[in-house]
Design a protein that fits this description.
This protein has 246 residues and is α/β, with parallel strands linked by helices. Helices cover 32% and strands 17% of the residues. The N terminus is likely disordered.
């Protein structure tokens, strides 16, 4: 694996901590994606985050990028429609993405108490997920924006997804829970590298129609014509008076 992958901004914990931590190994082992898929997703998310960092009008902590199976997710806030247009122009430069799913909210002036309450909800939810031994998939990303809890990640099955959502809905002061959790039923039994290439069109097959059915020619028995043999018959002399001429 390239050394530079861990330096990509916005890459998952697996890649950014591969240099000096064993916690990343645990996260990789529990991730339902293949190692190659995780690497490609990290590159796409890191590329998108880097493009957003380049724009001076976008604050570094304003938007977080995530990527799963080639789908790029944007979670955060924007200040105006003009800035939202700029955000889309930045992520449009990212190569290899299959789609862009935006979960961006128009920024509102929030009090400090809202910020601290969201941080408390985040810590409580993470504690519940760690304490639940039936939630084995990792990492599950939790984003809280304007009272909405956004869940992102890849889980083992639908039952595990429902448990994660139930933990999020049990928190006080939650507006709604938005789930972007993949599991085997919608990501495939063996997640593979997905691309946006279209399948080649089917080759048209030319069917040769069968020849038209015709009535069989009935062979009627014709009477046999006997060949007439020519016979040279000698004329018969008729003697009327045999005594004449004596």
């Amino acid at each position: 694996m390239p050394f530079g992958i861990g330096l990509i901004p916005g890459a998952p914990a697996y890649f950014s901590s591969i240099i000096g931590g064993s916690q990343s190994i645990y996260a990789t082992a529990m991730d339902e994606r293949t190692t190659e898929q995780q690497m490609l997703d990290a590159i796409i998310a890191g590329h998108a985050q880097a493009e957003l960092y380049k724009d001076k009008d976008i604050r570094p902590d304003q938007i977080t990028t995530h990527c799963y199976f080639g789908k790029l997710y944007l979670v955060g806030e924007y200040d105006s429609q003009e800035q939202l247009r700029t955000i889309y122009e930045c992520v449009d430069k990212v190569e290899g993405k299959r789609a862009v799913i935006s979960r961006l909210y128009l920024r509102e002036e929030q009090e400090d108490s809202d910020f601290f309450s969201e941080q408390a909800q985040y810590a409580e939810l993470q504690t519940q997920l760690v304490a639940d031994f039936e939630v084995v998939s990792s990492p599950i990303e939790v984003e809280i924006v304007q009272g909405d809890i956004i869940l992102l990640g890849v889980v083992h099955d639908k039952e595990e997804r429902d448990r994660v959502i139930a933990h999020a809905m049990s928190l006080e002061g939650v507006n709604r829970v938005v789930s972007y959790l993949y599991h085997q039923e919608n990501a495939g039994p063996e997640p593979q590298i997905m691309t946006a290439e279209l399948a080649p069109p089917p080759v048209p097959t030319v069917e040769i129609p069968p020849p038209p059915k015709t009535k069989p020619i009935s062979k009627k028995s014709r009477p046999k014509v006997e060949a007439k043999t020519r016979r040279t018959e000698q004329p018969i002399l008729a003697v009327s008076n045999p005594d004449r001429g004596r």
